[in-house]
Amino acid sequence: MELGLYINSLIYGIEYENTEIDEKLRNKLEKEAKDQGLEKLYERACKIDEKAMQNISINDKKRIIRVIEIFEKTGKTKTELEKNSRKELEFDFKIFITNMDREKLYDKINKRVDIMINQGLIEETKKILELYKEYPTAMQAIGYKETKEYLEGNLTKEELIEKIKMETRRYAKRQITWFKRIKEATWLDMQEPIENNIRKVLEVTNN
Asked: What are the φ and ψ backbone dihedral angles of 89, each rounded to 5 degrees?
């Protein structure tokens, strides 16, 4: 489950239903994505659950397929299941989200990817692929899946690095968009002096 879903589960009392994976259905959808293009599945998922798809990228195959799987297995949309599972909370909460200039954020992301490569991401991915016969779910995470493409000869090293940076920047953008929907959140500007943010936190928590 992604960070945004954990937060929604906590602050809105949503209990995400653990819909059993149908391997036959998943393989069928994977084949459709490969043969017809992911865009076709994306359009299909949008028709099924337009609201849920507002938070899902057209390139996010895993989550696109999951929206279709849930509907096929339960007859209900992901949005309907989440709405029906909400419960009244028994506690109060405060949410603080740190934010920074977009260009500075992207620069940090780019530098982090360079560090990951220099510290052995390629070698780590190669060892994991040699260790497991089946493709682990964790290997679908940004960084691993692109490195797998590189090891299969589908990307040059330069293309690998740039693709990881691009996908990470896209992920960060989606997360920011998600967090902006949390009306209860207080945003902290990381360009401001730390004293200003401390003051803001104290003001909110004392109210």
From this structure: -80, 150
